[in-house]
Amino acid sequence: MLQGLIQRTCLVAFNTAHTILVRQKHAFDRAVLKPKVRCHFPKPREVKRINVHGWDTRMSTPEGRRVLMRRILKGRHNISH
Q1: Average pLDDT over the chain, rounded to whole?
Q2: Rounded-to-integer distance, Cα 7 and Cα 59, Å
Q3: 58: number of Cβ within 10 Å
């Protein structure tokens, strides 16, 4: 009985730790958050939009990372361009 309790406790602790590690691993993973590519040959206006509002531009500054985190926490489908 004691051994079963210990095994269940260890299993719960392992699952919790695994969940935390997986969430931290995918916090800003572009492949998970932004899996689709809009277009392979962007138009000039799209290039400007991506350069101003794109993922790499947002990730390059602390305020941009704050914008992305706000959109992630709000549950937006499109996080950035």
Answers
A1: 74
A2: 42
A3: 21
